[in-house]
Amino acid sequence: MANDEPFTTSANVTKGGIPLTAIDRELLAMKDEDFHRVTWDELRHIILVTNALEQLKRLPSDLRRYVTWSASIKAKYGSITSYVIQERLHWTPSDPGAAIPTFPHRNPVPFADPRDYQILLNDWPYGLEDGITHIVVWTKALIDVDAEKGDVTGESRGLIEGFVERVFSRRLDGVFGEGKGRERVLWFKNWVSLQSVRGVDHVHVLVKDAPGEVLEEWVRRTSEPLTW
């Protein structure tokens, strides 16, 4: 069966060990043309009002390919986290044998030093309407979260918002006009239960109608200092 063909399953876990929710199983049986792509206004409501991040799902064909891809990656690297560290970030953990990886960093404050984070496009974005780009910012410094709620602390939220404003919103001001950039930028940090890559802190950034050349400025394949 082709990876992009709908199929039904009652299993909670795939043969490759990938966990499936009830919504995942519903999506796997769905055709792309029957899937509703999330609009920018809907994204704003999900992220800013309800914080119902579990509503963000991949396109059915992407989910089917992701399930197959994840199984092959786990077979080769042991985990998706190991793959991301080795092949996408090219970072070296302080203790390669540790269950939860940590990384040498220049500043313990997240996003304070550009050499401690990396900006990449999401390889497996959610099913969003055209014009919305899904970016992931990976950080070597840990982002504090509330141990009970699993959400970021107030201090962490302030650090992330300042970073997003400085790097993304202000850059889009130069494209769309002063103060207009923040209207085209959203961010969130997944609850631990929703993370597909655990152990490496990251923040999701979504931008609307960002020109290709601006995306190229943001996306960095190395940890070289940025110039803005």
- pLDDT under 50 segments (min length 5)? 221-228
Look at the helices and sheets and give the structural class: alpha+beta
State mean pLDDT (0 to 100 scale).
88
Number of helices: 6
Write down how many β-strands occur, each being a DSSP E stretch of 2 or more residues: 4
What fraction strand?
A: 5-15%
Order of helices and strands: HHHHEEHEEH
Question: Major sheet, described briefly?
Answer: 4 strands, antiparallel
The number of domains: 1
End-to-end Cα distance? 48 Å
Radius of gyration of CA atoms, rounded to a whole number: 18 Å
Q: Provide the helix percentage.
A: 25-40%
Shape from CA axes?
globular
Instruction: State the strand order across the main sheet.
Output: 1-2-4-3
Short characterization:
The chain has 228 residues and is an alpha+beta fold. It has helices spanning 22-28, 40-50, 60-77, 80-89, 154-176, 212-218; strands spanning 117-121, 132-139, 185-188, 202-208. The protein is built from six helices and four strands, in the order ααααββαββα.
Could you describe the 3D structure shown?
21% of the residues are buried. The longest helix is centred in the C-terminal third of the chain and has 23 residues, at 154-176. The protein has 228 residues and is α+β, with helices and mostly antiparallel strands. The chain is built from 6 helices and 4 strands, in the order ααααββαββα. The N and C termini lie far apart (48 Å). It has one domain. Strands 1-2-4-3 form a 4-stranded antiparallel β-sheet, sandwiched between helices. Residues 221-228 have low confidence and may be disordered. The chain has helices spanning 22-28, 40-50, 60-77, 80-89, 154-176, 212-218, and strands spanning 117-121, 132-139, 185-188, 202-208.
